[in-house]
Amino acid sequence: MDQKQKVTIIYGSVGGNTHLVVERVSTELGKNNIETVLVKSLSADASNIEGSNLVIFASPTYYHGLLEDHFAVFISKLKLENISGLDFAIIGLGDKKYDSEYITESAQILEDFVNDNGGNIVMNSLRINGYPLAKEKLITRWAQKLAKKINQE
């Protein structure tokens, strides 16, 4: 019997939209026999990614292209850890009504962080502009594609 795949989702969320998205992704991965662990960036540390087959970073974009505050603190500490060779997927949220130029800049920041520190991004990032429940089909398709990729490994 194959060992169940484990995915850790580390996310920042103040208003709750990112939390909604990662819950939907977690549910979809669970339907595909993938264990998920959700960890808020406020309480996350490097030990949370140990033993994971894949790590998902998820953050909203605030102000003019910044990560959620607790997520920014988390990755600044993680830079001291070795993530080289680990597999990652990225979720970035934003809303053009706040800043049309940096709508989902959080995804780019997280992609750059993973790439600069030797991690592997396994597929295109999920980028959501606006209210996430209006993008439920997009979220589900992305999570299904990710599940397929994880289960092929």
Description of the molecule:
- The protein contains four helices and seven strands.
- With 153 residues, it is α/β, with parallel strands linked by helices.
- The chain has a single domain, classed as Flavodoxin domain (Rossmann fold), CATH 3.40.50.
- Strands 1, 2, 3, 4, 5, 6 and 7 form a seven-stranded mixed beta sheet that branches.
- Strand 1, helix 1 (17-31) and strand 2 form a beta-alpha-beta unit.
- Helix 1 (17-31) packs across helix 4 (136-152).
- 41% of the residues are buried.
CATH level 3 topology: Rossmann fold
Overall CATH class = Alpha Beta
Radius of gyration: 14 Å
Second-tier CATH architecture? 3-Layer(aba) Sandwich
Question: How far apart lie the N and C ends?
Answer: 15 Å
Q: Round the mean pLDDT to the nearest integer and report it.
A: 89
Structural class per helix/strand content? alpha/beta
Largest sheet: 7 strands, mixed
Provide the helix percentage. Answer: 25-40%
SSE layout and pairing:
Layout: E1 5-11, H1 17-31, E2 34-40, E3 54-62, E4 66-67, H2 69-78, E5 87-94, H3 105-116, E6 120-121, E7 126-129, H4 136-152
Parallel strand pairs: 1-2, 1-3, 3-5, 5-6, 5-7
Antiparallel strand pairs: 3-4
Helix pairs in contact: 1-4
Produce a short descriptive summary:
This protein is an alpha/beta fold. Helices cover 35% and strands 25% of the residues. 41% of the residues are buried.
